[in-house]
């Protein structure tokens, strides 16, 4: 019976997908931007079932992102394997909103085991933000990268270049050679090179990471060119395909299986539509990717020396034929954290710096995480916030929190976070009358709001007890609803439903927005007194049918049923 892979294979995780096979094992490295630890690694044995195996940048001395802007940080990790070890190149991009010239220092790290430990980063220049390392048959190694050109009147996305990397000296060597200037679609980036049957295949992303995204393929008999374009030019794109559930398809790379089948992993998104907007007219380029950029996969066939989608066109498919490999599901990984172990769940991420005992500890109260309040959520420094990716369009997250605020400057609770300008949260605090309160608050495009209007019923509730309180948020595709409970069984909604689309890559007029939404816990003390909150558990639960397991050949419900 034919098995299928349902896309996306890694929902809610930012790709720039770099997939490799080492023996019978497949690995994908994904971008993490301003979130710490940096670069997630997922592992599969069948290209269907994936598990998180660790992170690459786990120490403060490996990367310094303090003060970085939203969506700055770790971009486009490219994973490879050669000489008995794993290699990852990445850029630590910053100043993406500070003018025409971005800072794009690039690095390479290595490890003998995919789970680490990973080496200190070795600098490999800073000409662009998408470096990859190509290991040629003769043992030479080359950095292939895009060029960022900030001059007035020039294409910001300059040519794709290659330059030799001297591993013994740990530095670039020789001439930097331009090999491809892109097509008319523009925004040529994300280059990687595959060598197969005597050809060098240059795979690039074009069209930007939004609606015109695409995978472009060229080939040459020589690494340095000249390169000829694929007869179809764009091997993958969902451009102008408004009915396709997978939008923004692009930025991919190829991988083969032990039996000789080929696949293309790629970036994609599953947009939802603004429920408060005008509901008629074309749907192309009008959606909002609340889960951010996700990782998809397509089957590839080789014909006349070129890779083609197995479906015969260049449109991504919602489900594709799985490879002829034995199914290999993994033990289920916990989606939450009960804070009873010695370490935090690997699902957690923090902003710009690691979780450290000075503000986040499992050792202060058995079975609880103690979080010391620091800066407010709009800060780019000293945020006491733990969050995990939202991976589903329908989900519920819940916490049990013990918190004893003394003033309105003390707050802690449950947050849905896109960046430091766009977030919703349910906080426990204390008002000017000395009453303990629970309240829904928000920031949209940097504008602070108290949804429902100050004083209106439903947006704020007084809490009579000093016992721990349960807080919950439910996402139903286009709406968030917060609620609270004294016993974990009887729940009361608080505040109005909140539109999910402002917490998305497309909301607003900024270009560099990549991360998708997160849900987590926070503590703030803007009086700098260091008051703490204790969290007894965090639960994350997908709602509805969004299974990512292989399925037999049978009719599926309409694709938009998962949106």
Supply the number of structural domains. Answer: 2
Provide the CATH architecture of the largest domain: 5 Propeller
How confident overall, as mean pLDDT? 91
CATH topology name of the largest domain, in short, is Tachylectin-2, Chain A
Q: From the helix content, strand content and strand pairing, which structural class follows? A: mainly beta
**CATH C-level category of the largest domain:** Mainly Beta
CATH superfamily of the largest domain: Glycosyl hydrolase domain, family 43
Shape: globular
Termini Cα gap? 28 Å
Percent strand equals over 45%
What assembly state would you assign to the polypeptide chains in this entry? single chain
Low-confidence stretches: 547-563
Q: Please count the helical segments.
A: 0
Query: How are the strands of the biggest sheet laid out side by side?
Result: 25-26-38-28-34-35-36
For the largest beta-sheet, the strand count, sense and barrel status come to: 7 strands, antiparallel
Helix content: under 10%
Write the layout of secondary structure elements.
Layout: E1 3-6, E2 18-22, E3 25-30, E4 35-36, E5 38-44, E6 51-57, E7 73-82, E8 85-93, E9 106-111, E10 122-123, E11 132-135, E12 141-145, E13 160-166, E14 171-180, E15 189-196, E16 199-206, E17 214-220, E18 228-237, E19 247-256, E20 262-269, E21 294-303, E22 306-309, E23 319-321, E24 350-351, E25 360-361, E26 369-372, E27 384-389, E28 394-403, E29 410-419, E30 422-430, E31 436-444, E32 447-449, E33 460-462, E34 469-476, E35 479-485, E36 492-499, E37 518-525, E38 532-542, E39 551-552
Antiparallel strand pairs: 1-23, 1-39, 2-3, 3-5, 4-24, 5-6, 7-8, 8-9, 9-10, 11-12, 12-13, 13-14, 15-16, 16-17, 17-18, 19-20, 20-21, 21-22, 25-26, 26-38, 27-37, 28-34, 28-38, 29-30, 29-37, 30-31, 31-32, 31-33, 34-35, 35-36
């Amino acid at each position: 019976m034919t098995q299928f892979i349902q896309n996306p294979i890694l929902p809610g995780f930012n790709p720039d997908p770099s997939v490799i096979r080492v023996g019978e094992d497949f690995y994908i490295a994904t971008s993490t931007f301003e979130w710490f630890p940096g670069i997630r690694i997922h592992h599969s044995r069948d290209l269907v079932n994936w598990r998180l195996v660790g992170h690459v940048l786990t120490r403060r001395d490996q990367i310094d992102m303090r003060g970085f802007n939203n969506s700055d940080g770790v971009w486009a990790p490219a994973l490879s394997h050669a000489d008995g070890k794993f290699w990852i190149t990445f850029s630590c991009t910053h100043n993406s909103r500070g003018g025409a010239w971005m800072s794009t220092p690039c690095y390479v790290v290595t490890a003998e085991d995919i789970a680490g430990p990973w080496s200190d980063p070795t600098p490999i220049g800073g000409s662009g933000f998408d470096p990859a390392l190509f290991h040629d048959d003769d043992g030479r190694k080359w950095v292939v990268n895009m060029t960022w050109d900030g001059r007035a009147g020039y294409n910001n996305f300059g040519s794709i270049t290659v330059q030799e990397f001297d591993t013994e000296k740990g530095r670039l060597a020789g001439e930097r050679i331009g090999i491809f200037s892109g097509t008319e679609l523009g925004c040529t980036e994300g280059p990687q090179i595959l060598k197969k049957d005597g050809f060098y295949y240059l795979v690039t992303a074009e069209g930007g990471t939004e609606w015109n995204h695409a995978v472009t393929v060229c080939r040459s008999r020589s690494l340095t060119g000249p390169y000829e374009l694929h007869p179809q030019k764009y091997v993958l794109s969902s451009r102008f395909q408004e009915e396709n559930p997978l939008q923004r398809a692009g930025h991919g790379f190829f991988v083969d299986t032990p039996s000789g089948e080929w696949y293309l992993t790629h970036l994609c998104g599953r947009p939802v539509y603004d429920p408060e907007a005008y509901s008629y007219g074309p749907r192309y380029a009008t959606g909002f990717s609340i889960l951010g950029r996700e990782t998809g996969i397509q089957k590839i066939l080789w014909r006349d020396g070129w890779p083609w989608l197995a479906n015969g066109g260049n449109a991504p498919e919602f489900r594709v034929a799985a490879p002829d490999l034995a199914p290999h599901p993994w033990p289920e990984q916990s989606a939450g954290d009960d804070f009873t172990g010695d370490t935090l769940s690997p699902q957690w991420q923090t902003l710009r710096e690691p979780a450290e005992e000075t503000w986040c500890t499992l050792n202060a109260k058995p079975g609880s995480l103690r979080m010391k309040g620091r800066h407010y959520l709009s800060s780019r420094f000293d945020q006491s916030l733990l969050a995990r990716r939202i991976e589903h369009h329908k989900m519920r997250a819940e916490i049990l929190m013990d918190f004893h605020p003394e003033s309105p400057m003390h707050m802690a609770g449950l947050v849905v976070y896109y960046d430091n300008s766009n977030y919703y949260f349910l906080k426990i605090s204390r008002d000017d009358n000395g009453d303990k309160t629970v309240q829904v608050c928000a920031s949209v495009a940097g504008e602070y709001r108290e949804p429902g209007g100050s004083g209106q019923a439903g947006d704020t509730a007084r809490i009579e007890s000093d016992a721990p309180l349960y807080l919950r948020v439910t996402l139903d595709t286009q709406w968030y609803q917060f609620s609270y409970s004294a016993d974990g069984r009887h729940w009361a909604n608080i505040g109005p439903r909140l539109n999910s689309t402002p917490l998305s890559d497309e909301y607003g007029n900024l270009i560099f927005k990549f991360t998708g939404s997160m849900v987590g816990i926070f503590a703030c003390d803007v009086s700098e007194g260091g008051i703490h909150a204790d969290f007894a558990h965090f639960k994350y639960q997908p709602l509805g049918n969004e299974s990512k397991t292989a399925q037999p050949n049978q009719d599926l419900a309409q694709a938009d049923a998962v949106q």
